[in-house]
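Lecture notes, continued. The same structure-token format from the folding unit now serves as the input rather than the output. Read the line below as a description of shape only.
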């Protein structure tokens, strides 16, 4: 299957080539309805919500940072702030997400971004043999072992999810 046939975003397809992950093109799944949210993706794939890997951009003292989080959890911004030693961490707006990654919200993959950013990966992702992440569009996803995904993203394992009350 060629990158075009897989439905992957061209920038993400290039990243797969650069990382030697050409075989992943055949595993990318494209859905007619958007898989923009973790819940939509899990329903389309038929997996648990926690098997979705969300790629979320935050601004730490104005500097973009990528947080990889399981789909069933929320990021604790205060824990991200502490992890980074930042004064202030906020959720990035759509413009900053696109400028930083080259992708729209709902289609941001864990790697293959326009610019290199620091990556924090929540340990919760390690609770599954396989997780699913966006392949650069709100309609495409791919499966990968969490440790492999985190390694390709250059992520640092952290614990930044909200604790249940």
């Amino acid at each position: 299957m060629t990158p075009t046939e897989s439905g992957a975003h061209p920038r993400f397809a290039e990243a797969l080539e650069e990382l030697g992950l050409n075989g992943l093109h055949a595993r990318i799944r494209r859905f007619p309805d958007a898989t923009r949210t973790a819940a939509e993706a899990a329903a389309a794939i038929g997996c648990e919500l926690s098997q979705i890997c969300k790629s979320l951009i935050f601004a730490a003292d104005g500097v973009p940072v990528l947080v990889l989080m399981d789909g069933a959890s929320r990021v604790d911004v205060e824990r991200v702030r502490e992890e980074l030693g930042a004064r202030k961490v906020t959720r990035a707006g759509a413009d900053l997400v696109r400028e930083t990654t080259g992708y729209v919200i709902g289609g941001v993959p864990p790697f293959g971004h326009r610019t290199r950013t620091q990556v924090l990966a929540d340990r919760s992702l390690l609770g599954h043999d396989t997780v699913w992440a966006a392949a650069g569009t709100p309609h495409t996803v791919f499966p990968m072992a969490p440790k492999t995904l985190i390694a390709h993203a250059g992520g640092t394992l952290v614990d930044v999810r909200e604790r249940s009350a």
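Point for the exam: Strands lie at 29-30, 52-60, 63-70, 89-91, 118-122, 131-134, 140-144, 156-158.
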